[in-house]
Amino acid sequence: RQKIVEFENAVWHTSFSTPGDYVIKARAFNLVGTQSLNECEAVVHINFPPICTFWTNCLPCYECIDTPIIFNSSDSYDPDGTIVRSDFELLDATGAVLNTHAILQYPFDWTITFASPGRYRIINTVTDDFGIKSKPCYLDVEIRSKRLFFFVEMGPLYARESKAIHATARFGALYELFPHFIDLVFAGGGALTLEKAPSKSFFLTHALLNFNFSRAFIGLGVGYSTEVIVDGNQDFEFVGQVGTYLFKHYCRTRGAIFFEYRGSLEKNRPFSQTYKLMLGFRYLF
Predict the structure, then answer these.
(1) What string of pLDDT tens digits covers the 285 residues of the chain?
(2) What is the per-residue DSSP string for 36-86?
(3) One-character DSSP codes across 205-220
């Protein structure tokens, strides 16, 4: 590209549409058109802007309140420099800025725990070591307030009193008293005997408090069972469970396996003669 300007206005304004290194050369002429013997030269570097990209640990983000969500822009990059700053903005559904957060060193992540349901947008902009900012990138999240889940669970159960295996199916509900920490669980259903008399099918129910430890949980409570043998006894029982979640999509579905122990609370019916053992799978929705 070439540009001729008069000496009285020897300024050339131009712009560059493509990053890279450019050499600018200038020659001067006197009044009779004689060219200067030397050329003026300058090298200009047009910086590549950084590229913003960031991810979250919940995609697609339909999460519950009080669930920590990580937003990370460490995968952002600059073709000819280094990312030195990451700026986040949290916006509500109206576009109002609720919070901002600047990070000046790797890793560029921000953890947000949403206390209120709604739709939110997180905008991120990164800056390189030349001070050039990227174009903003963003992610949308929807926070829900669901704390009540229904579930179905099934599995084999062994009853010591009948010395028989039963096929058990139960239905119930789980309510998060303190999300991620303590749940209230109610369940009831039937156990179909797979043996001949005196073993018989029976009904059982229970109420538990679940204590959560990341994916693992321990449940403690009381239950009730009808007689497991002909002319047997009904029982109020101690019920204990230990289990782990195989998958856990907050506010959507969960799946867990668990081991359950039940024993009579009656004084004349010792645990060693009345216990029940169950291995089950629970699907919550």
Answers:
(1) 655 555 566 777 777 667 667 787 877 777 777 777 777 788 777 778 899 998 898 877 777 787 889 999 999 999 888 999 999 999 999 999 999 999 999 999 999 999 888 999 999 999 999 888 999 999 999 888 888 999 999 999 999 999 999 999 999 999 999 988 999 999 999 999 999 999 999 999 999 999 999 899 999 999 999 999 999 999 999 999 999 999 987 677 899 999 999 999 998 999 999 999 999 999 999
(2) PSS-EEEEEEEPPPPB---EETTSS-EEETT-EEEEE-TT-B-TTS-EEEE
(3) EEEEEEEEETTEEEEE
**What does DSSP say about strands 40-46 and 118-128: parallel, antiparallel, or unpaired?**
unpaired
For 138, the 3-state DSSP assignment is strand
Helix/strand/coil for 28: coil
Which residue is it, tokens 């902009």? Answer: 125
Q: Which residues contact 131 (CB under 8 A, 6 or more apart)?
A: none
Backbone angles phi, psi at 272, to 5 degrees: -65, -20
Which one, of 223, 167, 171, lies nearest residue 199 by Cα? Answer: 167
Place of tokens 């002429």: 29
Residues pairing with 131 in the sheet: none
Residue 82 one-letter amino acid: T
